[in-house]
Amino acid sequence: xxxxxxxxxxxxxxxxxxxxxxxxxxxxxxxxxxxxxxxxxxxxxxxxxxxxxxxxxxxxxxxxxxxxxxxxxxxxxxxxxxxxxxxxxxxxxxxxxxxxxxxxxxxxxxxxxxxxxxxxxxxxxxxxxxxxxxxxxxxxxxxxxxxxxxxxxxxxxxxxxxxxxxxxxxxxxxxxxxxxxxxxxxxxxxxxxxxxxxxxxxxxxxxxxxxxxxxxxxxxxxxxxxxxxxxxxxxxxxxxxxxxxxxxxxxxxxxxxxxxxxxxxxxxxxxxxxxxxxxxxxxxxxxxxxxxxxxxxxxxxxxxxxxxxxxxxxxxxxxxxxxxxxxxxxxxxxxxxxxxxxxxxxxxxxxxxxxxxxxxxxxxxxxxxxxxxxxxxxxxxxxxxxxxxxxxxxxxxxxxxxxxxxxxxxxxxxxxxxxxxxxxxxxxxxxxxxxxxxxxxxxxxxxxxxxxxxxxxxxxxxxxxxxxxxxxxxxxxxxxxxxxxxxxxxxxxxxxxxxxxxxxxxxxxxxxxxxxxxxxxxxxxxxxxxxxxxxxxxxxxxxxxxxxxxxxxxxxxxxxxxxxxxxxxxxxxxxxxxxxxxxxxxxxxxxxxxxxxxxxxxxxxxxxxxxxxxxxxxxxxxxxxxxxxxxxxxxxxxxxxxxxxxxxxxxxxxxxxxxxxxxxxxxxxxxxxxxxxxxxxxxxxxxxxxxxxxxxxxxxxxxxxxxxxxxxxxxxxxxxxxxxxxxxxxxxxxxxxxxxxxxxxxxxxxxxxxxxxx
Length: 758
Hints:
Layout: H1 13-23, H2 38-53, H3 65-70, H4 105-118, H5 123-150, H6 165-176, H7 182-186, H8 191-209, H9 222-238, H10 244-257, H11 262-270, H12 286-308, H13 328-347, H14 372-391, H15 395-409, H16 435-452, H17 456-480, H18 484-494, H19 499-511, H20 515-528, H21 533-545, H22 549-562, H23 567-579, H24 583-596, H25 601-613, H26 617-630, H27 635-647, H28 651-664, H29 669-681, H30 685-698, H31 703-716, H32 719-732, H33 739-757
Helix pairs in contact: 2-5, 2-6, 2-17, 5-6, 5-8, 6-16, 8-9, 8-10, 9-12, 10-12, 10-15, 13-14, 14-15, 15-16, 16-17, 18-19, 19-20, 20-21, 21-22, 21-23, 22-23, 23-24, 24-25, 25-26, 25-27, 26-27, 27-28, 27-29, 28-29, 29-30, 30-31, 31-32, 32-33
């Protein structure tokens, strides 16, 4: 027998629980599906969710992982832990004008722990944690769906009962194997969504635990309500969507605990009905709990606002073109079209892409655009579901549809552009939480079809087929996320109009040394988006390296004209102008780059090279010194200082700079080589020899290292060793300048010595 014991002073909650058990139909009654004990159901869900994404465990750092992890200084031990609370997800200060205001310190903290335990940037550990998190969340979904689909009931021993074991298992499997979740699981930055979902669900389960009768016989526990608020705050510190659980807890309380009929309540509010207190709104404890949730949510948002400041995130038109449209009509139409695309990704997750911005989805600018049909279909379905959720005579149907719509819509609101501009058009990762609502609606629809179907097994086989297809799609998509090359190329067929896709394919090819193929994709990116300054900059760089200087200059000049504060393009333009021997223009370009990026060590390094070419030695040394101050590990700047001081006869100063550099970068063989040359000229042969040998050990195939060591031995009088290293150098590089002449001189000297000895 299922029953609850309640305090005699709180009669209003007892009927709510009792009626749910006695009067509502059991969703599982008509569902033709597997019935497993709770433990086995969770094991099956965990295993299948693991199989879906297991092949991503040894993937690389891809796409946004570079900025959020590899280039994020907040992961390194030298960054104080306290800085995490004042930096955004990407490691920038929240007060910076360029910050995206993505405040997720707890997610960054888990990245930092990953980094410390792995001893560096090894992606396996990061991926394994993501897979474990998704499996854990999928297991928790069994409990969550059992409450959402079957209601909240406790046995006389205080154990929560699963009144819909078959339906909750099906819904949890649908969630576990949904291909749209691949970005969150296989992409390491998806950790934010996974952690947010974990604490989101724990907050919900904690709120449900508040209604388990305690020893004092109270009908709800304030402690567990407060725990759910704290867990909601933790979810928000993992990702912004987490705060929405507080609203969903309130909806659950009203619909499930207090069984409020929303339509009846709206009518009584409109007509100021005196029987309003009987509608359920004023039942004991409901307003108090909702007040706690509202106060908690307001407090959390206030603290976040105080930390982040009032400035809006910095996004550009290419990130979210609809939000920059002048016409309110165009903005509204396109926002709704984006919603329909998100809905379609839930229904048919076949065409998936790592990025949907920058021309992937052209703007709808008139009602004659055929894509308006998608908006109409979306709202037709939504209005139909809302009408059923409000007006159905079946209270069980009203409750499930309202909860399904609530979990579908409310977690999506932060990504909807309704409250603030977001930095994307469509993002698969933001559908992770809303997919809970989709799974509820799908499962309920399946139960209705099962009720009507004569051959229920065929329907069950069809659903099983959908699950198997989704498992295979997850495995395929996970394999695409294992490397940037596969990920970027997979997007070409989905978003051929997306300039960023072509840009990323080109960048990946350029990083692998395939410049000819990279040029093709960079040109296509610029064709699709003539204002794509990053593509222009990278294309200009490649053309500069191929000595196609005039076209490189045109592209880089256009890039800085479009975006005058683009420091990297100004620096690269300076390099091209330097190569064209237009030194004054090059100097001006370098200083403009430094003006827009104060801490720019590479630009100071290139400025120093320009001054060295102009024989402005003091200016060159100052520029390189600035580079090393900003970036102490800037090996090239240190090397150039040593070489310039060496060439100008300042051996003592060159030696001092070399020793300073090696203290900062002790394993840099090029610095060992440069300092060894200086010490050799200063006749400090023993120390010079030790550095040469250390440099050769680090880089044994450098012909110049062997050649200069041979010169040292030649000067020192160790002729046999000199002969040995001259021969090694010539073997490595037969055309090494000066080495052959020095070797011939040594041979003649050795022959003369042999003749004298004879």
